[in-house]
Each structure stands twice: as structure tokens, then as C-alpha cells.
Amino acid sequence: METITDLKEKILALKKEKNAVILAHYYQEEAIQEIADFVGDSLELSRKASQVEADIIVFAGVYFMAETAKIVNPNKKVIIPDVNAGCSLADGCPPDEFKAFLEKYPNHTVVTYINCTAEVKTLTDIVCTSSNAKKVIASIPEDQPIVFAPDKNLGRYLIAETGRDMVLWEGSCIVHEAFSLEKLIDLFKKHPTATIIAHPESETHILKVAHYIGSTSGMLNHVKNSTNNTFIVATEAGILHQMQLDNPTKTLIPAPSKEDNTCACSECAFMKVNTLEKLYQCLQDESPEVHLDNGIIKKTLLPIQRMLALN
Ligand code: 13P
Ligand code: SF4
Which residues does the record give as iminosuccinate binding sites (predicted)? Predict the structure, then answer.
């Protein structure tokens, strides 16, 4: 029977033969993170994707991320292990509905969180990720009203942090909305010295009790640099793999979800449709491939480049 090690070796050989590079998000299963050439959060991955020299990019993440890699590399082949790796935020913002929504706010600057489709990005002035959202908002003149989409939770957090006039699209991440405040408070009572860290896609009541709020990489850095030993982590559970590797002696406790604790609610089912087997198969077949219309690529490049230029 083929072991994970056999499969990893086959992937490495194929990767070399085809001059491919594997980019993976921290929410991917451990075996994929281990075999990737680069693991990062959304911002790091888009930056890395714009610097790739290989002929093929295997994007182990969700579809909007693979689309972004294609937009910044229109002449390269971008493949994804499972084309069904969607995202509740991207799915919750259909381009035609977003277009109609924007017609109500003609003089607004449109900022979209990178978790949206390429078509929605064509309607955008500047893209942001959770790492640089505050910086992106700060780059817009103070008296300029803003439409922010699609994540209402990140949007509310940004309004509270920046005091800006922002109209929000009503989208959310099903994973980050799964955390229970009541259970989190109970857990904290059992670990009163713990630091609660949360991703800004979480609901406002969770963010209110968090000691630190940041993107995936922000949280990894925070735990690494902190002198504290115990952390309650309110984000997708995939982050715990790298966090524990970075901090072997620290105690990391996943934040509890509203449902019973066996439901794996804090795992993104979209991210987890990618598996090592599918990654091997997609590299072998060079498919499923991300295809984007040239017109869409042209229109989306500018709002993405504006974001990348800020960093
Ligand atoms: P970051 O990678 O920007 O932290 O975003 C998390 C996320 O939900 C990715 O889909
Ligand atoms: Fe989308 Fe949430 Fe999954 Fe990230 S964790 S890909 S925002 S559904």
C-alpha cells in the first residue's frame, strides 16, 4: 500500500520534472503544508505568486486564491487540486448583485477583501487582505466614503478601528462565525492566563474579548514573539500545525464552536477538499487549470497591484 511518504516522493519528482512550484495556505492539511515550497497567508501567497519563476503553479488553497495567482501570472499555468475549493465569502457575493449594489453608492471607493471572485475584483478600486486592510483603508483620503465587501465582520472591525464611513456588504465566513462566545468565556475561566487570539473574520463579540486580533500570519508572529505560554486560538484549525512547530512548548487551545465539539466546525471544509492525492493527480494531469478571460485579468490586475504596491 502507498504511504504518505511514497506519495510525497512522487510529488517531489513530478514537481522537478515539470518545473512546478507548490504554494499552500496555512489552512491546508498538514501533509500539503509539509510538501509545499511556500506556505503563507493570503497576502504572502499573492505576493509570492507574483514572484514565481516556475512554469506551473500548483495552488493548494481555495479558488479565489488560485485566481489571484493566475491574474498576477497570466502566462503561467495555474492548477488547483480540487476545483470545488470555494469560499462562503466569495460565494456570498455574486458579481451581478454586487454590481447592482454599487450603483446605489456611485461616489464611493470600492475596497474588496481578496476573498471574492475575479469578477467582483473587476468592480473594485483596491483589494485588501486581513493583513493589510487597515493600511489599505488608510491609503484612501479621509473624507472619501468607502464600500467594503464582502466580509461584514472584517468591515465592522475596520470601522471600529479606523472610524471611517463605510458601507458594508453582508457576507461572512462560515468558519469564523462558528465560534461560541459563551463556551469561549467558560474556556478562558479554566485558563485565566491564556491569551485569546482571533482572526478579524470572527464576529464582533468574539473580537471584543480577544487580546490580539490579526491575520493568519499576524497570529503566528504574535504567538512566536509572546512571552505567554497558553493561547486560545479563534481561527481555522489548520494554523495550529505551524503554530505548534514554531512553539513546541506552548499550549495552543482551539476556540470552541457553537455546535458540539466533534463537528470540526473550525475546519474550513472548502480548504480541506484539497488532499495530497488530489495534489499529485492534478500535477500529473496539469488539471484542473484556472482559466480567466484576458479582459478580466486586465481589469483585476490594477486593484491587486495597488494593494501589493502598498506593502
Ligand atoms: P488570511 O490568510 O488573510 O489570514 O485569511 C484567512 C482566510 O480565511 C483565508 O481564506
Ligand atoms: Fe472562505 Fe472562511 Fe474558508 Fe477562508 S476559512 S476560505 S474565508 S470559508
Answer: 25, 42, 113-115, 130, 199-201, 216
Q: Is 88 in the pocket of ligand 1 (CB under 6 A)?
A: no
Helices and strands, number each (H, E), in the chain: 15, 12
| Whether residue 191 sits in one domain with residue 45 | no
Ligand nearest to the CA of 171: 2
Any idea what the CATH number is for the domain that residue 234 is in?
A: 3.40.50.10800
Per the annotation, does 211 bind a ligand?
no
Residue-number span of the structural domain to which 168 is assigned: 89-174+298-309
pLDDT (tens digit per residue) in 193-214: 999 999 999 999 999 999 999 9
For residue 1, what pLDDT is reported?
79
- Average pLDDT of every residue of the chain: 96
Closest-lying ligand 2 atom to the alpha carbon of residue 151: 7
The H or E element spanning position 280 is helix 276-285
Distance CA 218, CA 208 (A): 17
Whether 265 maps to a domain, the answer reads: no
> For residue 3, how far is its CA from the centre of ligand 1 (angstroms)?
30
Q: Is the CB of 129 under 6 A from ligand 1?
A: yes
Question: Same domain for 75 and 98?
Answer: no
Domain count, the chain: 3
Q: pLDDT digit string (tens) for 86-138? A: 999 999 999 999 999 999 999 999 999 999 999 999 999 999 999 999 999 99
The pick from 42, 62, 80, 132 for probing ligand 1's pocket by mutation, whose C-beta has the most ligand atoms within 8 angstroms, reads 42
pTM: 0.95
DSSP bridge partners of 112: 127, 149
Nearest residue to 159 (alpha-carbon basis) of 207, 125, 101: 207
Q: Tell me, using a 6 A CB cutoff, whether residue 173 lines ligand 2.
A: yes
